[in-house]
Amino acid sequence: MSWSFISEDWENISLHDCDISGFTLDKDFVIAFEYGFDVCKENPQNLSGRHKRTGNAAIVLKNGAFHSAEYPSYEDNGKEVPAQNIDFSELSELELEVFDYYFENGVFTLECITLHGEFCKVKLTCGKPLFCWNEFTEDAWFQE
Question: For tag attachment on the chain, is the N or C end more exposed, with fewer CB atoms within 10 Å?
Fold first, then answer.
């Protein structure tokens, strides 16, 4: 797909409360956001002076690959519930909403909530993440 805007400035993109609409693995790993994500006013690709929401958008992880996904361990009434792995084939079925993300040492980590309220972590490896979109549709929800 051809994009009008491509940003490497991952620290000035907010994925909080953004829904992932799909994952595609080809030459690069693509995370689709049908309803977009938020671009902070500090991002060089956002010249509006305001935090803005995009339309259809994607994160393209250059030379990306699936690393792992899991429901982390947790404690329930004093009993430790072990972590549970999630297969790549299951990811698109989970209807994930992003809580937070970060990129460190070639690993792109998404912390998400599933449709059923379960917390999960998805780790993907890549050379660099590219945040891609074609338009701004409205102000971001966290406008000052």
Answer: C
